[in-house]
Write a structure and sequence with these properties.
Elements lengths: L2 H18 L5 H8 L3 H8 L2 H25 L5 H16 L8 H8 L8 H23 L4 H21 L5 H17 L1
Amino acid sequence: MTTRTHERILDAATRLLYHDGLHVSIDRIIAEAHVAPMTVYRRFGGKDELVAATLERWSAEWLGWLHDRIDRRGDDPGQRMAALWEALEEWFATEGFRGSLIANAAAELRGEPGHPAQKVIAAHRAAMRQFLVDLAVMTGAHDPAGLAAELEVLVEGAVVVAMVDRRPAVGVSVHALATATLAARSA
């Protein structure tokens, strides 16, 4: 299979799974990708593996995007922290924002601990936690792991509020909370 065909399948799967959830049929993904069914089965083995590959790709792209937005601010911890909330607000305001594909999939797969996507979900969440720990270390906080855990709750909460309530500006409120949290942890 060519890389282009592989990408077309993942593009279609990402669009459909992000828009409609994991219950989307593999036939619909195949039709959207304009490929033969055997092409998908040969490459991915089945829908569960395709879901895992789609989540892995989405995670890599989203984390890359977030890192890029933060890295544009240089090494100043305050600027990097501000960039986190600004990036989230930007994401929340995008057309078709439906939250985190990883979190959405985790919710849908909560009763399927053996699903191949569970490893991808765990890896994404670990990468996000590490990202927040690294950010917390840069701030000079006395307890970077504790600050990172609080930031994780703020990020996850902001994503849910932005998605459920369709309030992209929630990032401003969460930024204020994060600033207060950082000040309390740095005192």
